[in-house]
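Checked the freezer inventory, then went back to the computational side. Two predictions to log before the end of the day. The first one is the construct we discussed on Monday; recording sequence and tokens without edits.
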Amino acid sequence: MNMRASTARPAYGIMVEELRGPVTARLGGRIIAQSTRAKVMYETRRPAAIYFPRDDIHTCLTPANGHQTFCPFKGTAGYQDLELGEQSICNAAWSYDDALPEASGIAGHVSFMPEARVEIDLGSNQLEVPEYGNISGPLIDWLLREAAYLPTPEEFTQSLSEKLVEHGVHLSRLSVMAWSLHPMIAGKNFIWSRATGKVTTYAPSYEIHDHPAFQNSPLRHVSNGLGGIRQRLDLDQPSDAFPILSDLREEGATDYVAMPLPFSDGRINVLTVASHHPKGFSTENLGLIFECSAVIARYYEVFMQRENAQSLLETYVGKRTGARVLGGEIRRGDGDDIDAAIMFCDLRGSTRLEEDLGRSAYIELLNSFFETVSTIVHEHGGEVLKFIGDAVLAVFPAGDTPDEARAQALQSARAIVAGLDAMGDEEGKRRCESAIGLAYGRVTYGNVGSRERLDFTVIGQAANIAARLGDYGKSCGHTIVVSRDLLETPEQATPLGSVSLHNVSRPVEAFAVSVAMDADQLAAS
């Protein structure tokens, strides 16, 4: 006889039908299961699966071995090994002993993995797999046409949620956890709530991985490749494996699903959805999300790749420079001639420090030095272009306000000296001394280097003079030495006369700047 399923399946679906007469499973010619109560499950775009009542298994299945997989439609599958004489096949059989309502017909039944090479004799039964149609509607149309033009992941998340609701999905909350490549931010968590109609974005630090709330969360479970999660929250005795489930239940949620959103590089991100509908999510609801999840993942991957590129560029070349590179200045020679104050800040006594402290402690001190200098430079409108050994090269572009750029550079230098001195007041840290050179002038701000390896930097006499003035300050005992063109008036500093600097053709009129700041300077810094 023919077993026929409906031929029109416009949406994702599951169908369980009984088979008639004896159905037999053999392995190596030996009968391992035989039943007149076997069933077939049809699931959209999956091979038909034959299930035998557990009582009709005629071979030794080991107790559940702890291995589990998740299906948002059928529930959590437990696995058993099959032992046949001396032969043992790991995870050969699976069953949904606590099947979800959509698959309740296979509860208490066992099926065999294709890898186990079990031969199924259907007897007089013939299977006819449904002809699956194309899932269409507002969500698909939107993904194919409009979604590509949304500029931010927040806008995409909101539109995705709204389209799911428009498609009939009983959605009250949707969140996406997308991991990033950022030195301080572990990833972005976008959460849409139907109650507010808005998306909230969180950017947790890497400390999230050690936080108890994350350690016992669906996000960790799914992103670690342990499979998805579905939990009905309206049961009389719910199984709250994760604290967030009880929180959602208190808010009125009835159903919760967390599923993987894999990126092409292998990282597993997480999509979660919750429903307040009395019946939770239907198979059609979840099937729509499941069918579209690969496309949805690619959209988030594009968004995160752009954010990763921006964050990495900002980390390695600075915020302004990163924006210029992302804006298309990627060819050798691309750049501008600008007026700017240039700072070269060097850690004094670094060779001796490394000898006294040892490599690990010295690197920790060096990082603290870079952190202090970088933070102060950024707070004063400058940008750190690069770290050169134990020194920092920074630029304060003048734009239309050259006097402001000069003043910011001077205030930054004084604040750096004070900040490095204050490091010694922190427990476990050591005071640092610096040598700072400042100069002002016309520089080229752009790409230099080879065809395959570029450096976005400043080139010009002002940059060279700033570095040499810092070296000169070491020899004459001054912490901050500047060129005349950095000062509004010579009275701002102590004149050092015209000094000859290495690789600078003409003597430079140099000045020593007082490290101490008056009340106005302190307020400005």
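The second is the one RB wanted added to the comparison set:
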Amino acid sequence: MSRKNQEIFNILSNYGSFAKPFLNFMIIKTKHDGWKHLFKSIEYRWEDEKNKALEEIEKGLKHKNSKTLYYILLAKKLSYLFLIRDYTESRKLYLFLKENYSKIPKKARKIVSSVLVNAENIMNWNIKTRLWSKTYEADPPTKLYINLGMALKNIKEKNFKNAWENFKSSYYISINIPHRVGIISSLNNWSWYLKDFDLKKSMALSKELMYYAGYYFEDNEKRFDIFDTFFEINKENIDTLYLYSNIISFYWNRLPEKGKRNSKENYVNMFNYLNKFVIEDRSIYKNTENLRAYLKKYVSNISEVSKKTGISRKSLSLILKGKVKEIKGDTIKKLISGLNIIPDIYSPKAIINEYGKLYIEGLYRESFSKLKSMPPEQQKRLFFITYISCVKKFDFNNKENIFFENDFHKKWFIIEMLYGNEYINSRKILAKHFFERMKKSRFEEFVSKYFKLSKKEKEILDVFIRNYSRYDIKWNVRIELPEFLNKFADKYSLKKMPLSLAYWYYENGADRRKLVNILDFFD
């Protein structure tokens, strides 16, 4: 049995889909044998192709496998049988593995143990005697999912105190591995169920959820339920909604129109409310009946309101009676400031939009003041790191001054440079890490070349930069950097193992070639 196959399989088992670069590497490099089918089955499982995953296991079992690989394949088969809810066959295989447990080689025992424990928790089989319990105790990924399952069971049985402890355990186990799906699942469920008991704690957890979503994932449209969770928890906190509306809107636009799970039609009610907080440049609004009814709640005496807002009595009267068809944004701002109006998710778009402009303008002034006090070199570095990290980029000419003209979207960017939010800040940490070892002259050269790339090329490179930092952790196995990337690594003082994993993150050969073409431009 190949030692490297076993080591990488253990990494895939421990880290889950975070270890995707290892899987992509092994699918290409492994010879056609039982291991090849095992790795392909994991790929299908991560793509939620359960039946195809099971088919690969069956193909793998037909090969002449070592005893260790044979039992690993059977363990994966059992887990896939559960996924397709074939409980008749899974029961047979469960009993076979249980009866032959003493024959299982030590290297496969942890994998088999974790599957057996999961089977027992799902089906309540063999509750009293678990011969493999001590083995599974040494397996953090199994422990985290057992705790997560127990938490949801306790929620169902209204044992909330125990549920919070289970969620907490699964979260901290996930962080320590790190297991990115475990982190997101723990925080998403924990914050959601806690919101009716401790909203302050739930809000804090939901912001951690956003941090780790930004830190570990690129395709967050596939996990749009986390944004739904975040909105429901924070819908009374309008400052937070302003800070996150653009990000959620960005991923909303990537969703398919219709579908069983992750589609726009499933989140349309949430987005209709949240979309009001996506601030628009417009400064004139229709004087709708809804807007007039909203304003009348704040106007008991027109003369007093006129004094507080600086709007003439005649103009106020015409607005409230619907005699004017449109209202200027500046007029609405005066009403908001003079009457101390604080909108909520049910307020008219005109009120939310103009209040948002005032809110953002205040944050911008604070950010601009702090930015001006920084040394020019620090300003430029922070600008570039934020530009790599933001989800919606504006067109930028490298000769342009960092202190922008009166452009709302660029003001928003200045805020993201200094304040941002948990999602953007986690991506900024990743970008900053990429450049930490780079010499000043090389950094300046990198920046200059970056802005000569097309928009699509920038997006590919941005992901590569974040992945380099994500995968810069200690691994127990080494994957050599492809020879053609050695020059790039040496020139920009980058570590070879995370660089290799950032390259193998792409499962498609065409995508890897696009990346290499971009990196060649930097040589």
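For RB: DSSP finds 28 helices and two strands in the chain. The mean pLDDT is 92. Let me know if you want it refolded.
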